[in-house]
Design brief:
The chain is mainly alpha-helical. Helices cover 65% and strands 4% of the residues. A hairpin with a 2-residue loop joins strand 3 and strand 4 (317-321). 22% of the residues are buried.
């Protein structure tokens, strides 16, 4: 029985290794779909000098079938991204679910909306608060409103964690880890300042008390703390490999453009080999399946990751190309489309836009239907004349309502919470007043 269990456990481990880097969504491509497309490309343009792709099962099988013998590479960006997902995705998703169970984001946003209503009635409070924090002194501050502004700005500081990152996406950007950490920091901060009455009136601090109570469950969640500690360890390891591969770097801002810059492969290969040796020398390597799977992935794709560059003839002469650095061309195009959609709609999700495009297209095509157009024009000769009948006051009123969103954080507050020392300054101001 023990042997059977051991064998089953070992087999599950092998299955995980086989699936690592080959995760496919329900919409991911299959070889039967990709192969005909590659055959068309081959028929039209001939044999490629090289191929570069991610680690999907379908694309690897199709490339091998259609382009045998052609130099084949694995994209560094996709390799690192998939390896990071294999390493952290399960725990990261559990962390997200745990935060959702606590209702952290919804609770903080609801509290921020309530406080914003009060601030909108006293716009001069914000100016006084910002000046006091920037000066690091409460002299001249509006003490009655100071705790209220602290509550609002600290909430926005926590929520701002969800926009942290350099635009690489998970696992390079981990906004929910930062969100959880900031929430716990805020909870601990509130425990130290909620009993400090700047004017001697406890009523001034009631909003700090309420916020503290709402964060107690998050701060007291030992499971969340252990999860963050485990993720932190994996993040440190992943970021070391990320640094070794010199792509999607932590202090970079290239986003999906990362990897486009020319760079030698040999130094990267050397750095990755050093990383591999150091990982295998860890005291916990033999007992940690996550480390073992990661090293297995590096070994499996080593040749495709660090193959010699290809020579391309250009009008300016021969040029060496390292195609494995990145193949994010389509991702970049899609990113531009998404950014444009966000600017137009204000929504982060593209699903409503993509789903609505078909219906909108049909409505536009209806303009070719004379009967439909006659109903729409309502007696006018052109669409311009019909639109001219719309009451401009109604349009302006709707625009004002759209712009006066309660969710909009005042620019001075946004600038303030972006300062790294913001939280420490708030803590220091209260402690000095105690």
């Amino acid at each position: 029985m023990r042997r059977r269990r051991a064998h089953a456990h070992e087999q599950r481990g092998l299955d995980l290794e086989d699936r690592a880097g080959q995760r496919q969504s329900p919409l991911s491509e299959k070889a039967a779909q990709i192969t005909p497309f590659l055959q068309q490309i081959q028929a039209r343009f001939g044999q490629p000098l090289a191929t570069v792709h991610d680690m999907g099962v379908g694309i690897r099988a199709s490339v091998k079938e259609v382009f045998p013998g052609v130099p084949d590479f694995v994209c560094h960006f996709h390799f690192l991204r998939d390896l990071g997902k294999d390493l952290m995705e399960q725990e990261y998703e559990t962390l997200r679910q745990r935060l959702r169970k606590h209702g952290l984001t919804a609770t903080l946003r609801a509290r921020a909306r309530q406080l914003k209503l009060l601030l909108d009635q006293q716009p001069d409070w914000i100016e006084s608060f910002v000046q006091s924090v920037q000066a690091g002194c409460l002299n001249g501050a509006h003490l009655e409103s100071f705790p209220l502004l602290c509550s609002y700005s600290l909430i926005q500081w926590v929520l701002a964690a969800k926009t942290e990152g350099q635009g690489y996406g998970f696992p390079f950007d981990r906004p929910h880890v930062e969100l959880a950490k900031r929430a716990r920091v805020l909870g601990q901060l509130l425990e130290g300042i909620k009993d400090v009455h700047l004017r001697g009136h406890w009523q001034d601090n009631k909003r700090l008390f309420r916020l503290s109570c709402e964060l107690k469950k998050v701060c007291a969640d030992d499971g969340l703390e252990r999860m963050l500690a485990s993720l932190d360890e994996k993040i440190q390891v992943f970021d070391r490999l990320r640094s070794a591969m010199r792509i999607a770097e932590m202090d970079g801002s290239a986003g999906l453009n990362s990897g486009s810059e020319p760079i030698e492969i040999k130094p990267i290969k050397k750095a990755v080999e050093k990383f591999r040796r150091e990982m295998m020398a860890r005291s916990d390597y033999k007992s940690n399946r996550a480390w073992q799977r990661m090293i297995a992935q590096i070994d499996k794709y080593r040749e495709k990751l660090f193959a010699d560059p290809i020579t391309v003839q250009t009008p300016r002469g021969a040029r060496l190309i390292h195609p494995q650095r990145t193949n994010n061309i389509m991702e970049r195009l899609f990113r531009d489309f998404r950014h444009g959609a966000r600017r137009r709609t204000g929504h982060n999700s593209l699903s409503p836009l993509l789903q609505g495009m078909i219906a909108d297209t049909l409505l536009v095509r209806n303009l070719e239907n004379s009967s439909y157009l006659k109903i729409l024009l309502n007696g006018q000769a052109t669409l311009e004349e019909r639109f001219a009948q719309i009451d401009i006051k109604t349009v302006r009123k709707e625009l004002q309502l759209a712009q006066a969103s309660l969710e909009k954080v005042p620019s001075k507050i946004r600038q303030l919470i972006a300062v790294p020392s913001f939280v420490d300054t708030i803590s220091r101001l209260f402690k000095h007043a105690a």
